[in-house]
Structures are given as structure tokens and as C-alpha cells.
Amino acid sequence: MTDQDGFVTVEKFKYKSVSKKKRNKKYTFKDSDDWTLEDIQAKLKERKGVLEGSRFYKELIEIFKQHLLTTKFNDIVCYGIGSMQKSKNAQYQFVLALILRELLNIPGKMYIFDPVMTELDKELCKVNGIEIIKEDEQGKRSIKQSTLFYMPHCGRGLYSNTLSANWNKDQLPLVTIIGNRFDMYVGSQLEKDLIRECPYLIPAVDILDMISFPKEFDNNQVFNDLSIQTFPAEKATTEFWDKNKII
Q1: What is the pLDDT of residue 6?
Q2: What one-character DSSP code corresponds to residue 189?
Q3: How much is the pLDDT for 3?
Q4: What SS3 state is found at 209?
Q5: pTM
Q6: How many Cα atoms sit within 13 Å of 150 on the Cβ side?
Q7: Which residues contact 200 (CB under 8 A, 6 or more apart)?
């Protein structure tokens, strides 16, 4: 700029000093192996915020209200979620399990099992009032009351085992499974492999009702290909059971 005599002047810049406190501030990464209960709870709170703020969640809750609230579940059984301490996907899946328990107002218990769960995972479950299944049932839990099986991305054999433990006209209608779509396996796999690894999926697809989850969330690997699958009593006729008593 110029002054009143026409000389060019240079304006001095003033630099804002950085406080000593800010200069010395360090950002550190804490490995999940070193997490405490408070650390994992903070991470889950963060995941819940992201999930609840998504369009996926808003659509999913409407699906739950339409297709799950009409059923009076007594218990929730969670298989195969993984380690909340080690896995981002498991963290989101665990958060959704807690949301389901609250939304459905489950009067009974919430059970959980995965062989990869750490001691911190187990501590987390205990403080959230979740009963840890002590031995690997391999999915073969026989039920007497309406039960929601929450099984995101489990192996197809595990789904088949859950069906096999309740494979009769009285128990199967009490089973609701949130898991991978059975029709993704049946029809796309060799029948001999299905018979060997997951025989109960084959007849199950003929009588189940399926409601798919919304399409995408996060990296599309957390809840992709999941659905709500039920087995209405009116579809499992006498003829069905006569044909499928033994696979």
C-alpha cells in the first residue's frame, strides 16, 4: 500500500503465538490390545452414534417395527458376532443387538457365544446383562418359547444346526433368524455340498418368509445380505413334515 506522500509501505504481519499447552499436545493411538472397559464402551458409543445417524438405520428400524414388534419374543440368542475388542464390524453388530433388545422389550435373557471373544469382550457382555453361553453349542439350541436368533454372517452349517435343533411343527414357528439369506446358498451351491454341510436349509427355503435389510451401510460388509427369516406355522403343513422329517 502507499502512504500520503506516494511511498510504498510494507505492512507487517502479526503472527498469533501458539500456546505452550497446544504445542505440547500429543495425539496417541491406543492399540485395542491395551483397551480397558471404558475404552471399548466409548468406541461402542461412537459406533452407535454413526449407526443411528445413517439412512440405513432409519429404514431398518421401520422394518423392525413392521416385522418384529408383532412377535412377542422371550429371548435373544447371539451367535457369531465376533470380538468387539478386535473388529469394527463386530462393534456395529453388537450395538444393533443391544438396540434390538431394547426395541423389542425382551422379558427373558440375552445370550451370546463366539469362540473368538476376548476376556474384555466377556466383561463387556456381563456389564450389559448378557449371559455368555459357556460351551460351544454349535448353534444347536432347542427352544420352547419364541426366540430371536441374531446370527450375522455365520457359516451356513451353523444356520442349519439351529434349524435342526427345532425341526418340528411346534418349535420351528417359534424361531426367527436374523442372518444371511438362505436362498443365497440353496440354488447357488451344489446340492451334494448342501446336503453334507447344511441339509436343513434346503427344505427351509420352501416355507420361510424373508424380509431383507436395507442395501448399504458403512463399507457394506457389516450388515450386507442379512434378512429376517421366519417359519410360519401355516406354511409348514402336514405334507411338509411328512416329506421332511428326516433329511
Answers
A1: 54
A2: S
A3: 55
A4: strand
A5: 0.86
A6: 24
A7: 159, 160, 161, 163, 164, 167, 247
Question: Which pLDDT does position 25 carry in this prediction?
Answer: 46
Nearest to 47 by CA among 124, 155, 149: 124
Q: Which residues contact 110 (CB under 8 A, 6 or more apart)?
A: 75, 76, 78, 97, 101, 129, 130, 131
Cell of 212: 431383507
pLDDT 10s digits, 100-144: 999 999 999 999 999 999 999 999 999 999 999 999 999 999 999
Residue ranges for the chain with pLDDT beneath 70: 1-28, 188-189, 246-247
Q: Please write down the long-range contacts of 63-70, taking CB distance under 8 Å and 24 or more positions apart.
A: 63/211, 63/213, 63/214, 63/228, 64/100, 64/103, 64/104, 65/103, 67/211, 67/228, 68/100, 68/103, 68/104, 68/148, 68/176, 68/228, 69/103, 69/104
Place of cell 424361531: 175
Mapping DSSP to helix (H, G, I), strand (E, B) and coil, where does residue 53 land?
coil
Cα gap 98→108, rounded to integer Å: 14
Count of CB atoms within 10 A of residue 217's CB? 21
- Facing residues of 226 across strands? 180
User: Could you give the C-alpha distances from 86 to 32, 77, 121, 208, 241, in angstroms and in order?
Assistant: 7, 21, 9, 34, 43
